[in-house]
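Materials and Methods. Structural model of Sodium/potassium-transporting ATPase subunit beta. The 302-residue sequence of Sodium/potassium-transporting ATPase subunit beta from Denticeps clupeoides was retrieved and submitted for structure prediction as follows.
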Amino acid sequence: MPGQNKDDGGWKKFLWDSEKKEFMGRTGGSWLKIFLFYVIFYGCLAGIFIGTIQVLLLTLSDYKPTWQDRVAPPGLTHSPKADKAELSFNMNEVETYLTFTKRMRDFLEAYNEERQKDQMQFEDCGDEPVGYRERGDLESDIGVRKACRFSRSWLGPCSGIEDRHFGFSEGKPCLIVKLNRIVNFRPRVPSSNDSIPEGARHKVLNNVIPIHCTSKKEEDADKVGEVRYFGVGAGFPLQYYPYYGKLLHPQYLQPLVGIQFFNLTQNQEIRLECKVYGDNIEYNDKDRYQGRFEIKITVNNS
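The predicted structure was written out as tokens:
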């Protein structure tokens, strides 16, 4: 177009002006100052960030949780786990409960006696409930702590030793129950019977956290029948607490309770609830496994 100088360089000259020795309108010295400014600026930010992280790490322990004031009481879980907490099977058809019994055998493998022989890792804590087994402070220099042995045989007919079907083949199914691990948690035995159902009050003993299962619905109360509990004190004995965490307690075995339902009404779905009782064990309607669990069991025979 008339009046336009085609040799003004346009964008090329903007990037590099050879006459003024400027790159994008600035001399090399200006760019060096800008570069140094941002190096120092971001270097300071990185230093502050790293320093903050280091200070935070100094307040944390590899062994002891820093904040436990919001940790919920332990969950109560069971084996076998079933979809939607529904355990339905036919006592006359092995394939209907084979998956359940396999899960129970797999779970109990860690409790085999041959895996608890190492004297450097395990110790005998007795087959009767006693008090807490204190093994020093979490921050002490003792190092890895020994774990209490727990024999599968204490679970009786729910051990899977003599009956590989855990009672399922006879319509008398077992559940293996445990309290979930919480580092440094010490469950406290109920101090009174006020919050315990009448049917479970006889289970309140020294040094054991009792567990009790009953029908969830009143109309199913006469369909549950006899329920037996197997384990140390038929509950969770205190000598297995506290738990010191994966680093200090790598071989730790939780105490287990075997629960067997001897004469559930057959060919009917029965909704059951099992609870543990202790002064520092609470329940939450939003969490169906906090201190309790519900399960539906259907024993078919045709």
